[in-house]
Fold each of these.
Amino acid sequence: MNDKSQFLKGTLEGCILKIINDKEIYGYEIAETLKSYGLSGVSEGTIYPLLLRLEKAEYLNSTKKESPYGPKRKYYRLSLKGKEELKNFYENWIELKDSIDKIFIDYKGDFEYE
Amino acid sequence: MNEVDKMRKENLKISRKLNYENLKKYNDIVCYITVNSINLNRKEKEEIISDILDMFLRCEEEGKPIEEVIGNDHKVFCDSIIQSVVPKENKAWCYFNRIITTIGDAITIYFTIMYIPTVIKNRDFVRCSVNKSNIITIMIFEFICCALVNYFKKNLSKLSKRKSSKKEKILLGSGYGLVALLIAMMAYKLPNCILFSVSAYYVIFIVGIYWLYKLVIKVYERR
């Protein structure tokens, strides 16, 4: 229940879409951006399958660009379909967040052992 | 040289920059993805391999272990990649393909290991006669082949890492011996009554059509 990764499961794709919406970016930079927002447990290896899935679903377009020391690197940007998906995600997220906030409105975070 | 071959050559060349330990892990991953993602075309596979190589090189550059990025079990990492890109198969098509493959393979096995020796022996295209022991032998043969292929597909990287022990070799040898004995017993014990017989030309035609079907499917998947 306290496992952060379980909370993240359904929302990580939305976060990735938002980051890619801001600028053209590649996998490692996405992982670093997520870390800078406090999602330190998310590595490039975790987000790579999600990027492939999003690309397959046509939410992302990609371009190969030269990299300083390795093979050509894949840079992602949001497609029109991806922008729509991001909008849907955000609306759903706000709705869910409001509902959860309402449930917890009177919760003070204290507990007593019986 | 086409684009995919170029990409493969480049990946191979760049992968030589990796240190020994990472190169071994990288090769295991490449092997696992190549064998287990049969529904992906060559370009898609090479692109994935190229992205993974980039991860390895970056880790090496930053002096951190690759496990920090892909986790401790590279099989889990590879499976998550494969699951995210392999299209969901139509179930009806999947079953149909499996049935055709099982029957086609069975006829091919019969033709190559049972019928051709008869033709060589008789120096004539005699009618293909199938009896009970033929069917059971083919079924055992197919079952063993399927089990072996599935086992190697899932454990290729593990198997390349270690040598098999004496106990395992004895077990494997006894297994083979047991199967051979079983097949021999079937052939001996079962009444050698012919279930049906068909003209050899029909069998050659069916085997030909089956392998043409396999070829078309392979070409379609590679596109």
Amino acid sequence: MTFNRRIAGIAAGTAAAIVLITWYVMSWVTSFPPTVMAGTTGGVTNVTFQTVPSYGHQPHPDWVSYLVKNTQGQWVHSTVVQVPAHSLVRLTIYQFDTATGLRNPLWSQPRGTVGGTETINGKPVASIDPTLTSHTFAVPDLGVSVALPGVGDNAPNQCSVTPCALSMAHTTITFTIRTGKPGHYRWQCFVPCAAGFPNGFGGPMQTVGWMDGYLNVA
Amino acid sequence: MAPDSLQAAKTPDTRSPLLRPNLFTGVIGLAIGYIIGVWIGRRVGTHLDWVSAIDQNDVSVLLGYSLGTIGYIAGLGLLDYPFRRLLGQRPVDVVKKDTGAWRYLTVSTDHKVIGMQYLWGIGVFFFIAGLNAMLIRTNLLRPSPPIFSPGQYLTIVGLHGSMMVMMVSSIILGPFGHYLVPLMIGARRMAFPRMEALTFWLTPLSGVVLMSAISYGGFPTGWTGYPPLALQANAGMDAYIFAFFLVAVAMILNAINLMVTIITMRAPGLSWNRLPIFVWSMLATTVLMLLGAPVLVAGLLMMTLDRTSGTNFFVAGAGGSPFLFENLFWFFGHPEVYILALPGFGIVLEILPVFARKPLWGYRLAVSGLLGVALLSFMVWQHHLFVSGINSNLRPFYMLTTELISVPTGFVFLAGMGTLWRARIRYSVPMLFCLAFFFNFLIGGLSGVFLSDVPSDVSLHGSYFVMAHFHYTIMGGLIFAFFGGFYYWLPKMNGLQLNERLAKIHFWTMFVFFNSTFLPLFALGLMGMPRRVSTYAPHLQFLNDWVSVSAFALGISMLVFLVNLAYSYGIVRIPADANPWQSRGLEWQVPTPVPLENFDEVPTILAGPYEYGDANAPPVARLGPILPAVAGD
Amino acid sequence: MTTDNTEPAPDLRRVGVVWLVLSVIGVLLVIFALGPHIPPGSATAQAHEQHKANVIISAILTPIAIGLLVYFAYALTVFRQRGDVIEDGPPIHGNSRLQGAWLIGTVTVVLFLAAYGTYALYATESSAAGAGGGQGATLISAAPAGALQVQVVSQQWQFTFRYPQYGGVETTQLALPLNRTVVFHVTSLDVIHSFWAYQLGVKVDAVPGADNVADVTPHKLGTFNVRCAELCGVWHGAMATTGLVLSPSAFSSWIAQQRVKNAPATRHLPPYHSVYYPDPIERAG
């Protein structure tokens, strides 16, 4: 093979390898959960979440996760929700997971909600037992933190594959927050619910799209 | 060609070149080993109760890497010699050749081939890590909304830092250390050629292992890998651990090889007084690698056990302490940054006399500077921990030692300044890079004085000021020195000239945009921006945007370099003279291309390599008759 | 080795004069023009110590930097190769006196800086000893009797604050009274964080299982930025809050309000302790 052909061959091979590797890396780097718009009725925006003990599908069937309901009523595996600015947002969370308990019992008290309470299965409460907490929904930059109690360990008909139907064991938590100026506010869970990870804070607790997300106030 | 008596005793390998072990058989071995390791790990994982809960099996990942490495080494043929010896057979040895591109894809015991392999092997990772830096600066163009997901961003930050520290730390020692040290000391080879080949082949493997962290979800700790965060991390953390382990092993083996070569294989007449300053810097670096890397291996092993076997070395509340890792890591980590700095000093002091046409001023002072830095670097590591909660009475001692280390560093500056005094400076491209080195390292080194002072460090630790400091010393120092060495020595190493105009464009764009990128980082740190953040206070956006745009321009300046390579080596291919810079160095007294055995007869050294300006100075060495290079096999 | 003991060439005197003039101007600019603006400001005695250290180091380094730059600028313009013929320069190998002077000079500067740094840490007025940095388990000099104890509980990914002298109430907002020494006890519940209160001049690493202490006395009313300064996971960059320095009366009413507001949570909190080991520590099953 002449020298030029060899150089051209090597250059082409290298270029192909570079393109493949770059495509692989960039597709991972730019992966971001889809933004789900929240629907508004009667001046109040509604956001509905469910928290599940195990996702049940690849890539991580055993990871806990949040899912959010879109305006068509389907459950989407995302944690990025868009809500309007300067408005009332009512969040409903269907909580299907068992309790793990809070590392910092400070978060057992609802904060930043309208009225300072959260409603659990219809009853407003001012704090819950921290050892019975399964997850929290907290937006630190808005001062919001709401504890989500768990279903009993021995409750019948527990969900293990998403999306979880309301016929399975769950608790329902609702609360209302008032959004202010536009921005992208991160939210997270404060319960060490990533079972199997040290401190319970690895894996899903550190991955946007599972137990962390963004509240896009627009 | 004078026969090397050791060569004659071995059976030459007469297989066809395509049947000999090479990179591709190495990759096959890697794949086989990896699959076996993962399979064993899965069997082990069924006995670990947390594996099913977290959907990751660190044991199988690490076993896959370990057995994959063994398979890779076996596939490359590096186990042939020891196994044949163990079985009592006469070993089959690689015959060194000096032509054919194929020799770069096989195990070679020719230090020159290994030097070139290192150049391309490490260079690739330098550019990959540089691309990661472009991604980092893209994400920092605005504080909100985020461009990349924060978990991905942290992995990119970690990959950039890890790849640079792990691989690019050898960017001078690998290519130039291996290629030039035997030539500079008048030896035909290094002390341990097969081990030398092993150290090279481990390096791209560790880079690939590090990149594979992406397929495991990345790692969130940055290059410092602090637990307990490292213990919480996904399996990508195991990729980091294993890659760092391979690099540490390569460092230790490299250190042994270089140290023994320099101490025992100097040609007659090459006293310590006449040793080129670059070789001194290599020697000082080997001390750091040899003593520091094993401590890192210990820390990584403890981290591995914590992640896979339920130990609690670093878990407070279960008997361990995160402080243990911090100290083990930085005991290695601080010498590591001098492993990054010393080769840069060596190159710059080596090149300066050639283009100043004067002896190296203060040679003994410069040598004591290099050795002083090496010695002191083991006594300063707690300055990374000033506000970590160490006993506050330790801080004055480490403040003193850290301040003191600027004294030997200053010797290097004094030697450079003295060499320029009443010189006849030629502004060739290598000289430009060396001068830029002094400018950049001045800024980097002086910023280090702030960080060494505890009250000042309280406001600056963990902020962008630290980032600016180490980018100025590492990139402004090591990388500029690397490019200076590249433009200086490549004509000898591959016999081709580089286009001077493109080289000057590369230099000026790189120098201007490097300073434009990293100088504002000092301000950002002083204004309160912490390191490794994916978002920042809104009033810092203008500065961040300035830095990002400058960084993109810096990346483009690297493209100019790549264009120069493609043009000069691929298209025009103008042969270079044997000694285009009229240097007195011994490596320039051999013809280009360098003969297979370097020197026809072992040379006798008659004088130092820096005796410019002295008409009565003898030539640097008396060489034997040089035969023309043998073309073909 | 030949040593050059001849008089310095006239060129060097000119260089020296330029250096002297520029250094004087530079040092004056650094101390008086740049100095007041050098972070982190003087809102507390600790921040003032850090600020003073920054100014002093800048002032000392200015003549050094100017000297080197002036020399290089001079050498690079004057000592060039003239024409195309490559000729060698004089074979000067060194100058023992110059090397000795340099060694003594650099060591002196270094020793002075180390001594000053130690002085700033230990011998300043006790309220500023330690200069705001985390000092480990015990303060260099004991805090005054009426000091306010504030525990900074760091967790992934928010700082919360506990006031043991006010019933152990834990709040998400940090407020401090003016002119009263505050002793921060910084600890972590999970991974390593770092409590960096910028305007206060406080930076203390939060290590699980460790109580890292620093003290500060705020002298200015207003707000200060708190950021996490040690990589702690995915939301490290977002782990930030704003603290308040209030007048003593405003602080008393604030803390009373916080006790009322946080009462439901306070009864669930563990007793105040310098470190906490909440479950799970190891892998939750």
Amino acid sequence: MKLTLALILMCMLYLPVEIIGQERINLQVKKMPIAEVLASIEQQTGYRFLYSDDLPALKNKITLNAKNANINQVLEELVMHTPLTFNSLPDKLIVIKEDPAKKDIKVTGLVYNEKGIPIPGVSVQVKNTTIGTATDSVGRFSLIVPDGNVVLIFTSIGYNYKEEALNNRRDLNISLVTAAQSLEKVVVIGYGTQRKRDLTGTITSIGGDDIAKMPNTNPISSLQGKVAGLTIVNSGRAGAAPTVRIRGVNSTGNSDPLYVVDGVFQTNIDYLNPGDIESIEVLRDPSSIAIFGLQGGNGVIIVTTKRAAKGQTRVSFQSSVGIQKVVNKIKLTDAEGFKKLYDMQLQNLNAPAFDYTNYTANTDWQDLIFQHARINNNTLTVANSSEKSATLFSLGYNVQEGVLKYDKYKKLIVRLNQELRITDNIKIGGDVTGFYWKEDAPTTDVISYALRAAPIVPVQADEDLYYSMPSFQRAQIANPVARINQFKNNVIRDGYRAVGNIFAETKILRTFTWRSSFYADLGFDNLRGYTPLPYRYINLGEKGGATDTTFNNLARTSVTQEQVQTRKFQQDHTLTLFKKVNKQHITGLVGFTTLFIGSTRVGGSRTDTILNIPRDPDFWYLDIVNPNNPLSNLGNGTEEAFMSFFARVNYSYANKYLLNLSYRRDGSSKFSKANRWGNFGSIGLGWVLSEEAFFKKISSIDFLKLRGAWGTVGSGMGLPPHLYLPGVTIRSSGVFGDRVYPSVTPEYVPDPNLHWEVVRGIDVGIDARLLNNRLSSEITFYDRTTKDIITNITLPGTAGNYTYKTNLGTIANKGLEVTIGWRDKVGDFRYGISANYSYNKNKVTSIGDNINFEILGNNGANRTATGLSIGYFYGYRQIGIYQTASDLERMPVLPTSRVGDIAFEDVNNDGLIDSDDRVYLGTPFPPHNFGGALNVGYKGLDVLVEAQGVAGNKVYVQRRTATFAILNYEVNRLNAWNGPGSSNVEPILDASRGNNYLFSSYFLERGDYLRVRMLQIGYNIPQKLFQKATIKQLRVYISGQNIVTFSKTTGYTPEAPLGDPIAAGADNGLYPVPAVYSVGLNVAF
Amino acid sequence: MKSYITYTCFLKLMMCLLVTSLVCAGCKKGFLDRNPQGKYTSDTYPYPSGTGPYDTYLFAIYAELRSFNVHSQAFICATGIRSDDGDKGSTPSDGGADAIDMDNFPVQPNNIFVNTLWVGYYNLINKANIAISQIRNSNTVNASEEIKKQSEGEARFLRAYGYFMLVRLFGRVPLIDQVFDDPAAQSNVPQSSPELIYAFIEEDLKFAAQHLPLTWDAEKFPGRLTKGAANGLLAKVYLTQKKWAQAMATADLVMKSGQYNLNTPYDKIFTEEGENSSESVFEVQATASFVTPTANGVQYASIMGVRGTGNWDMGWGWYTPSRNLDTSYEAGDPRRRRTILYTTGDSAISLYGEILPAGLPNLMYNHKVLTSPVMRRTVGSLSGNWMNIRILRYADVVLMYAEAANELGGAANIAAARTALNTVRTRARGGNNSILPDITTDNQAELREAIRRERRAELAMEHDRFFDLVRWGIAEQTLHAVGKTNFRNDRDVLLPIPRTQIDLSKNVLTQNPGYPN
């Protein structure tokens, strides 16, 4: 080196310029440092090089193959991928130095997965800098780096994190490894995200694809059977929201979960388009929901809507069209059966036979009110993202008809999401969802009329002339067809809703992130209604009376208008800390939030006593009726507010030891000042055994985590505001003669000490992945207690029949949740099978701590008492039918028991049947819930089968207990007892036998069912077929939802309503849950 | 350099904190203090001053008199269908066992109407207790002692009426005379004996009789409770307990008050025009208009209304007059056709000259609840929710006087009883002297029979027949004679305590004798 320096000094003395390039060079080197290459050129030729030994690039290794090249060509190649340049001086002297212009190096590359398929949207970043980009739609990226020795970081959701040293390469081929399935997946938790592997609570995440592919207009309906511990009871009504229960019933009051949609607290997600959902997280245990405080007690469902993926421009369109139909009609008697049973009944009552002379029809009323209904879902999504901004626009349009005629629901959803990165540290963004819905709802009482109307009545004589029911049910039952036609499209409900937010986020000192968000949710619902004139009715003559035609000439047309405005404002401010020190990861969060909810409602109606308003919606405004006509109006409103402070720490050490802590202080306007504020919190611990050195040897287990969490939350959902104040109602009035005076009466009995329910619970779980991540399982045990449950109790007669809400007692829910999945691939054949099962034992630990009364529901059919399930069925147990007079002698009886009556079990063996013989007959809440899915794929073809069911509960067939008139019979009554030995189940047809209407197991059916929830066959059309079009993906599918249900129940659906915990499980002629057959298309450009 | 970074970060942090503190300041104190919107509480209600300070609470008790649970289907079942005046009516199995058992006995503890009555009357009593508590304890209004006493009297009358119904229907019932501040814990009260209940009723009614006015402004408050109503009801309470002297004296107070007479012709009493006439002592007030066809009325007339079609679709056709009632009238008694609406033969014509259609499910309907065609058209409804319910008529008071006097005995009393009885017969005669001759006997037993016959004819299809049979001790024989052979004196004179209420009370309430547990 010293020689070189001496030469340099020597050379400096020479003068320029001599042309270089005469000498030819032959050089073949492999991975040789540049300095050595230069040395070998010096040996081969007369050139001498001048350079500083300190230049780092001289150590770069290079491969060269020069044959008969001139010095310029060789040197060009030599410095090409380096920051160096050269400069010729006279006397074959060449100066090698750093080129300032070449300091930034351009690197390009391709990122692909194990299968060699390019991955778009991968984030590429230079380590320890903010320089970064993302791969484009074909997995390519280009990036300017400061020097050739930087380290690049590649990250993408669903793939393992990868660091790659550049080593002066200019073009990279990067292969990413799919993340050990969903473990590296980030799940959304309250006010942030967390890696699934770091969770200590129980959270299940469902991808948007799993929701979008179900033909439901309400996204929540699609979760049925997919999450252990989540019970969904669907309604078949067009546009109706299902009943959702997380881990059983925690309260005797409202048990609905909280929905958090992109941060906004909601009570439903009706306004979302299934196609817009990125993921839904179901938070079930108290440690996960503690951060939501007072509103989270029944569990939390977090919904995240789609965002534009980084570096992506994508247009996609999803559409499906389907037909819904009623699969299980209720089996009723036809005209012949009806006559037989009614005759028997009259005979048993010693009443004269009915005169059927004019009633010769055989009408199936069910067939006349149901239809094959259409369902159609469409979503168009346009996403674009660049270095500085990300935009997503989506348009959704859903139409659902109900299986009940004239039932129709439409929704139109427009969403715009925009995010701007102003600097590397400041980000702002916003979201706007515009929602329009319109509903044409018929009166659903038509279903119960159709179940009850006598089949012997003909339908109609002409368009405006219907037959009325026979005298034995005329006063109570309307002609179902007349009713559905009279009220078809008479009420137009529609509404607009705008939900939006803006946020700003800034990074401080790289460790901290501040985020402020403001949300608004404004709703405007309208109703316009019309009461038409009634039809004319033919009353068929009975007992020799003449058949006549009547028309109610006292009826008048009227119109109604109503508007409801709802408003919700929420703000969240959070400061998040993220710090990594050696093996320690710590994420901290502190925050503040407020929520205001208000509503205003006005409405009125006017009756036109002189003119008949036409049946045309264009006229249905109040002003169509002269204001001198009778009118009535209404107006009311609500306001409530919440304010909260919260904090959370997530800590992990070496990915092995996990600690999660959370805290929330919540205040609510619903409670009196003394009971307004409360503290909630949780602690979670986790231990990833598979990260321990001693565990690494067990190669068959890829991941194993033990976790446990404890938390306490409050539950005050669904409580009307201001229950602690002595509200009065001013609706009832004093009347004297024809004068009407206002009166005041308490609306309810206030409980000034009312406070929220306190939910405490512990979760213990084990998560494992085995056999190369093919087998995954999650097992969780939980034990949760709700203290001070709030119940809407109707005080017994002596207290004046008022409703009273008070804190009552304690309910425990203990359970087990198991989720198991297997996923594998054999050549082009791939398959996956998953199953979930949950068991929940609901037990009222104590009730009546603050009440001296029994808690009854449904006229005593449901009872809530210490030691048993909430709202269990309580009554007599049927053991048969008293067949003969000697049975009455031989067996215990009620004082009024007669032959043909239901024989009840003498439970206490005292020789007679009385109210002490009533026992636990079952629970309306299914203790066992299960679901499963099988996915099979071969090349472009995929098949999905999903099944779901419940077991262990009972359904109360309440629709059979009605005695207010002679109603059509269900076919079980064809087997009614009519002599010794005829039936040991069905009692005699005699409405005067009150004993048979005592609540007993006779009216209960086993609620177990297994339903094929989904069968879908899809095909991804190979890309080569449409290469010229810019289509990236095209999938077509056919599917059937709810196609088969195995069940012992006799109603339209085994899913009896569970909405009211103390009076649940009664089937009173529910709206059918239909089967849906559909075809669909997903296309992406 | 380093200090510069720290400085900008500090600045940012300060900005964020500033935003938060501004946001917090905007919502700090009042944010959680939200008032009910468009709703009063009992503390914020601006009590009207014009109608008397406590009227708003009193009127709520009156409103309860019109409720379905108090004076509607269950009331008609228990007071009417159980008696020999009428049958269940409608179609044979309409109403099922609950209704059929009311007609034929025994009524089961799970009978829906039994629970309805229990809930209804306790609701009425609770409203009265609320009003009494307001009058005694509230400082929101300043009122004279006189107004306070009068208002309390009005509330106590209605409470007494509630208990009088309960004690006659159920016998032993819980005695509740206050508003509980924690009802869920406190209001589970065991039953008291009928003697205690009667004593309580008498106290309330005596107080009411002392403080209620003789009359009200006939323009503003027709039918509002008076001294006469209190004494009239008190007379019935005494009569029920066989306290003959008090009954006679109290009825006499009403008769001497100068407020009532028998001048209203019998066929007018039950029409809309006959409402709040000089015959009326206590009448449940109801009204209806085209705009409000039901809310200010009571579903009473329509339950018994003709069960026909078209213009005759007036109701459910319940509580139809029995054959026994039809044949019980003396020859030519015009009250028969005013009470019974026949649907067959030449008599099938209404008070208003409307001819009834053929083929109706029942032979007879209650003519006393037939509404006027004019009102049906005016209100635009056939259901007659505007029909008042005649709870206590002057003729009833006169007959109570007669009965008490006769039972007391002695020639003077028997003569007074006979005179009173004959005043009722005179009015019933309607000027036709060939019918309903005066009763002339001075034999106590014969006069007793005559008074009982008269009570039945005069008050048929109203609400006293069953209670009369029970207090005369002839319920079993009378009901067996009309075919209600299940009736047993040791059980069916009282209704069973509703099973639901016993369950709710955790067996603090106990069942009446003869009924299954």
